[in-house]
Design a protein that fits this description.
The chain is α/β, with parallel strands linked by helices and 524 residues long. The strands form 6 sheets. It has a 7-stranded mixed β-sheet with strand order 16-17-18-15-14-19-20, with helices on both faces. Strands 6, 7, 8, 23 and 24 form a 5-stranded mixed β-sheet that branches. 35% of the residues lie in helices and 21% in strands. Helix 9 links the parallel strand 14 and strand 15. The termini are far apart.
Length: 524
């Protein structure tokens, strides 16, 4: 009998009504489980989290909550191999892909456990210093941060069922705000299994961590002032949710990470025979094929000097041609399938759109050979590299994100065209710049910052030691302006801000200093 995933709400595991949606193995189409949340009382679930979860978490101080995160990470670490297997079965992940998701999630919990311990036994935070308000220097203001009084609703995308959950939950739980997780149904098997293991370990206060494995249904109808929503997914869905009448009425915080046409830039000073040129080609190819290109931070646009575009095209084509695609369980396979038929079809349609303005120079074959799999039963998409020779006159390559192993190569003529092409993306999560020129480094960092949430600046001193264009590190902010959603997550203790209310306390300086003595400075 096929497994039916249960939802964890109000301290109990409950099934949704009906059969639910099928969760499949994208290698062969096998149905692994069904998931649904039809009929689940979402209003009661949120109320329970606000009452039981919030009171239980906020009775603890930051240091104690940090210890919870450490215990959670330990339980997950002990079950790591099981999660790897699920990542393969339900997401078609290679071992490297699974490590980014599973180990990335566990590592983020560990990081926030360490950071949380620095906050000690405080129950609220304060900003350093005070601000004088009047002639009487005794009358000043202190800004404090107190945990929100509601629940954090985390709506996540299909591509990172582990990391997507824990990169949000780590900061929320450390802040003392209960988590209500709504993972993408298609890959919710891993998310639900991790949460079940933690529930069985009995680490968290009741109501601290809830999950529904099917659709969100009328979830937004029940939000209240003091709640916060963090959403990762398409810009269209984000727009529908954050313009929901209840969201607008309550004025709750709504953080979005959405579509992103991330770029990689090869500077003019990098010659085709230099080590940095090879490092650039390697990074672009890796970003196109890791997790089959299903990363919100993956490189979609490749900006190179006009004089070097042929050399880059040849080098990328040669590297992509060596990528073995197929069943990740087969020896030698380096790229698996897309997560399901819907994503496969969307990728093909996106390639067709890009092809109106760009030429396919590698890939694009819907009947290519795969190893240990079948293109008819699996959800495979060949790595596809396109070339647009006149990007300044194009539109679709700058506004169409193909969420798969697809990127477009484009030339630039001078610095002015670099800045223009970068801005055409409309705001991105991440960008990379490969240069040894210190002057260009400085100009690029400052000029491109307005359009990016994160910039990876690579020269020969770090080309072998950097963490990667597409890897969101917990120390750095994750999010981006414009079409990327305008949100911000992670960034060390900066990630706690969205879960706190900042309030100015105006009073006698001696009273303010007494207040400060009860907590720690929070300068992030």
């Amino acid at each position: 009998m096929t497994l039916k995933l249960q939802n964890y709400i109000c301290g109990d595991w409950v099934e949704g009504q009906g059969q639910g949606a099928a969760l499949t193995n994208p290698v062969n189409g096998e149905v692994l489980a069904y998931a649904g949340s039809e009929g689940v009382d979402l209003g009661a679930a949120l109320a329970y989290a606000r009452d039981q979860g919030r009171s239980g978490l906020q009775a603890l101080n930051y240091g104690e909550r940090a210890q919870l995160l450490e215990s959670m990470a330990q339980v997950l670490q002990e079950n790591r191999e099981k999660y790897y297997q699920i990542a393969y079965q339900n997401s078609g992940n290679t071992k490297v892909d699974a490590a980014i998701d599973v180990d990335g999630g566990i590592g983020t919990l560990k990081y926030y456990a360490v950071m949380g311990k620095t906050l000690g036994d405080a129950h609220f935070l304060c900003e350093p210093g005070t601000d004088r308000l009047a002639k009487d220097k005794a009358f000043q203001a202190l800004h404090i941060l107190t945990p929100l009084t509601g629940v954090a609703i985390h709506i996540n995308a299909f591509n990172f069922p582990s990391w997507g959950l824990w990169e949000k939950a780590a900061g929320s739980l450390l802040a003392g705000v209960p988590v209500f997780a709504k993972p993408a149904t298609a890959t919710s098997l891993l998310t639900q299994t991790m949460i079940r293991d933690l529930v069985n370990a009995d680490i968290l206060p009741n109501g601290s961590l809830s999950i529904i494995c099917g659709g969100g249904h009328d979830l937004m109808d029940y939000v209240q002032t003091g709640d916060v929503v963090l959403f990762t997914g398409s810009a269209d869905t984000a727009q529908k949710l954050r313009t929901h009448p209840r969201v607008i009425e309550t004025g709750i915080r709504f953080n979005v990470e959405a579509d992103s046409l991330n770029m990689a830039l090869l500077a003019e000073d990098v010659t085709t025979d230099s080590p940095l040129f090879e490092a650039f080609v390697k990074e672009v190819a890796k970003e196109m094929t890791t997790k089959a290109g299903q990363k919100c931070t993956a490189i979609r646009r490749i900006l190179v000097p006009a004089a070097s575009i042929d050399a880059v095209a040849d080098a990328l084509t040669a590297r992509l041609a060596k990528t073995v695609i197929g069943d990740p369980a087969s020896d030698g396979v380096r790229m698996g399938p897309l997560v399901n038929r819907a994503q496969q079809q969307a990728a093909w349609e996106g390639i067709d759109i890009l092809s109106r303005e760009a030429e396919i120079i590698f890939g694009g074959d819907r009947q290519f050979a795969v190893q240990g799999g079948d293109v008819d039963s699996g959800c495979f998409v060949q790595p596809t590299l396109l070339r647009c020779n006149k990007p300044m006159n194009a539109e679709r390559i700058h506004d169409t994100e193909v969420f798969g192993p697809v990127a477009t190569l484009m030339p630039y003529s001078d610095e002015a065209s670099i800045w223009a092409l970068a801005s055409f993306g409309g705001g991105s999560l991440a960008g990379s710049v490969f240069t040894n020129d210190e002057g260009f480094f400085a100009r690029a960092a400052v000029t491109l910052a307005a359009h990016h949430g994160r910039l990876l600046m690579v020269d020969e001193t770090v080309m072998n030691g950097h963490t990667g264009h597409g890897i969101a590190m917990p120390q750095c902010v994750h999010g981006g302006p414009g079409r990327a959603g305008g949100g911000e997550e992670l960034g060390g203790l900066r990630g706690l801000r969205i879960y706190h209310q900042r309030t100015a306390i105006q009073a006698n300086i001696s009273q303010l200093e007494n207040l400060r003595a009860a907590t720690v400075d929070f300068s992030s």
